[in-house]
């Protein structure tokens, strides 16, 4: 990647992730919980279950169900978010389920549901990625059988420059080729469990973005792993 | 209601040998039929049939206040309804996730490619702009509603005419059209979705194939290959190499579809 003196708004290097913070056990009532932050973007997630599926007709007699709920709290952004579900939040909830489902081993919980509630406490872009990272940690903390964690990162293309871990000012970039936002979630083996893209990008650059995501998600994973280990130490 | 497991296993077995139930190749679309201007009341409209799958799309225009973050640009509002008449699987009532996702995929393809020239849809900055409503209805679901809806939306936009506007009263004269077309860019985006079934990648699945697919990637791009919107959906993971194949496959398919539908696009 070209790194010829590209200045990011907050002075970071193109591949530099904001300071990450991960902590498990932040909601004592939950069966598992975690916080994950990229700088000012802070997500907390709580897991309840496996518990009986309600409503009845959504029961799956063959395997357990993962049900995620993504929500931004009203004062998480500058302009107040109207409380309640939106089309955006419904979509992110579903995307989060799909991002996490491949690593869950929940065949043994027929008719049961594992509820994951994700709340964005404060937002400066990349909220769905922070939410997925928190949710993966919370599921592990709840002792849900898993093949491994998933780790999520947003890759951006700001004009022609690929960057890792996008912030709001970068997301709103309008000069040159504008901004492209690519949230990606991967397993530790680098398999893609989630990818979305908005903007303008060539196939070649998209492939480069995936390589960046592979490297960056490994860094996210290290932070997640450390938080889990620390929780075990008590 | 869903496809039987035994049928699913057979579909996967067939695909491994490069075969499909209906004799198509893995990257082959069903027959596509297009009708334009299917509604006299809508500013633009289309009917798209892909095999037995059918959608109708209508464009309506109205004048609204602009959004605060785009005071001099028109608005886009996309919604999709999966009509109960189009499948025994769909129920009446508030939209469920598949309908919401369908609308959002179309919305993002159009918005991100900047296909509609929204800057030309401003009437009075900060006060009045044109709002473009794209409404998608399923008439028969036999798989691949996503690509059908995206194609239908583009064609409906292409034949849309601006309605008459009473400048004194500052309101739209509904039912009366001008000869002015909706301002659109030349570069047309099109969404092609690749479905992963077992270890195979398939284009334009019929309903049974869609049922047994465990992951799909919808790629919205223009003919020159510039990608504007992309989403992986469903529960299965995808390897990086596989993702590369999906980009190639959808690109190749897009070029074919553009050629095939040249007179409409």
Biggest interface pair, residues each? A-B, 29 and 30 residues
Under the CATH scheme, which architecture of chain B would be assigned? 2-Layer Sandwich
Proportion of residues in β-strands of chain A:
25-35%
Category from helices, strands and their pairing of chain A: alpha+beta
Mean pLDDT of chain B: 96
Main pleated sheet of chain A: 5 strands, mixed
| Helix amount of chain A | 25-40%
Multimeric status of the protein: heterodimer
The ordered H/E elements of chain B are HEEEEHEEHEEEEHEEH
Give the name of the CATH superfamily of chain B: GHMP Kinase, N-terminal domain
What is the CATH superfamily classification of chain A?
A: GHMP Kinase, N-terminal domain
What is the domain tally of chain B? Answer: 1
Strand order of the largest sheet of chain A: 1-2-3-5-4
Shape of chain A: globular
Number of strands of chain B: 12
- Let me know the number of strands of chain A: 9
Say what the CATH topology of chain B is.
Answer: Ribosomal Protein S5, domain 2
Number of domains of chain A: 1
List keywords for this structure.
heterodimer, A: 234 residues, alpha+beta, Ribosomal Protein S5, domain 2, 5-stranded mixed β-sheet, 4-stranded antiparallel β-sheet, 4 helices, 27% helix, 32% strand, B: 265 residues, 6-stranded mixed β-sheet, 26% helix, 35% strand, elongated
Précis, in short:
Chain A has 234 residues and is of the alpha+beta class. Chain A is 27% helix and 32% strand.
Structure description:
The complex is a heterodimer of chains A (234) and B (265). Chain A has 234 residues and is α+β, with helices and mostly antiparallel strands. Chain A has a single domain (20-228), classed as GHMP Kinase, N-terminal domain (Ribosomal Protein S5, domain 2), CATH 3.30.230.70. Chain A is built from four helices and nine strands, in the order ββββαβαββαββα. In chain A, helix 1 packs across helix 2 (127-141) and helix 2 packs parallel to helix 4. Chain A is globular and about 55 Å long. The relative contact order of chain A is 0.18. The model of chain A has no long low-confidence stretch (mean pLDDT 95). Chain B is α+β, with helices and mostly antiparallel strands. Chain B has a single domain (5-260), classed as GHMP Kinase, N-terminal domain (Ribosomal Protein S5, domain 2), CATH 3.30.230.70. Helix content of chain B is 26%, strand content 35%. Chain B contains five helices and twelve strands. In chain B, strands 1, 2, 3, 4, 5 and 6 form a six-stranded mixed beta sheet that branches. A four-stranded antiparallel beta sheet of chain B has the order 10-9-11-12, sandwiched between helices. A two-stranded antiparallel sheet of chain B has the order 7-8. In chain B, a hairpin with a 2-residue loop joins strand 2 and strand 3. The two termini of chain B are 37 Å apart. The mean pLDDT of chain B is 96. Chain A binds chain B through residues 87, 90-91, 94-95, 97-98, 101-102, 182, 187, 190-203, 206-207, 210, 214, and chain B through 97, 100-101, 103-104, 108, 112-113, 217, 225-240, 243-244, 247-248, 251.
């Amino acid at each position: 990647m070209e790194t010829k003196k590209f200045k990011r708004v907050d002075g970071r290097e193109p591949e530099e992730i904001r300071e990450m913070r991960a902590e498990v056990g932040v909601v004592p009532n939950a069966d598992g919980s975690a916080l994950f932050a990229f700088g000012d973007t802070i997500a907390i997630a709580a897991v309840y279950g496996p518990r009986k599926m309600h409503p009845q007709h959504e029961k799956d007699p063959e395997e357990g169900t993962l049900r995620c709920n993504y929500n931004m709290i009203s004062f998480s952004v500058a302009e107040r978010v109207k409380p309640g579900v939106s089309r955006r939040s419904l979509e992110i909830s579903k995307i989060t389920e799909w991002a996490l489902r491949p690593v869950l081993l929940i065949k043994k919980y027929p008719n049961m549901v594992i509820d994951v509630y994700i709340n964005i406490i404060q937002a400066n872009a990349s909220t769905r990625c922070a939410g997925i990272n928190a949710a993966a940690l919370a599921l592990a903390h709840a002792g849900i059988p898993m093949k491994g964690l998933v780790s999520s990162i947003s890759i951006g293309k700001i004009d022609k420059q690929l960057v890792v871990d996008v912030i709001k000012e970068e997301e709103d970039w309008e000069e040159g080729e504008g901004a492209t936002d690519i949230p990606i979630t991967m397993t530790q083996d680098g398999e893609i469990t989630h990818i979305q893209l908005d903007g303008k990008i060539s196939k070649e650059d998209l492939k480069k973005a995936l390589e960046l995501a592979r490297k960056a998600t490994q860094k996210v994973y290290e932070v997640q792993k450390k938080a889990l280990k620390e929780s075990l130490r008590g | 209601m869903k496809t039987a497991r035994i049928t699913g296993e057979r579909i996967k077995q067939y695909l491994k040998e490069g075969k499909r139930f209906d004799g198509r190749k893995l990257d082959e679309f069903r027959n596509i039929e297009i009708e334009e201007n299917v509604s006299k009341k809508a500013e633009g409209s289309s009917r798209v049939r892909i095999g037995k799958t059918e959608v109708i799309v209508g464009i309506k225009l109205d004048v609204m206040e602009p959004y605060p973050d785009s005071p001099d640009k028109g608005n886009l509002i996309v919604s999709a309804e999966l009509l109960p008449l189009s499948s025994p699987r769909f129920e009446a009532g508030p939209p469920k996730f598949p309908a919401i996702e369908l609308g959002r995929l179309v919305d993002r393809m159009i918005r991100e490619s900047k296909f509609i020239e929204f800057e030309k849809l401003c009437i009075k900055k900060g006060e009045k702009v044109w709002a473009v409503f794209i409404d998608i209805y399923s008439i028969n679901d036999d798989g691949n509603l996503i690509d059908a809806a995206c194609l239908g939306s583009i064609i409906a936009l292409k034949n849309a005419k601006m309605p008459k506007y009473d400048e004194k009263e500052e309101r739209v004269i509904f039912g009366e059209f001008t000869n002015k077309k909706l301002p659109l860019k030349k570069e047309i985006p099109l969404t092609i979705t690749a479905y992963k079934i077992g270890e195979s990648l398939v284009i334009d699945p019929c309903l049974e194939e869609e049922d047994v697919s465990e992951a799909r990637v919808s790629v919205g791009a223009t003919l020159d290959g510039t990608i504007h919107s992309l989403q992986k959906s469903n529960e299965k993971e995808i390897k990086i190499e596989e993702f590369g194949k999906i980009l190639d496959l959808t690109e190749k398919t897009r070029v074919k579809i553009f050629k095939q539908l040249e007179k409409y696009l």
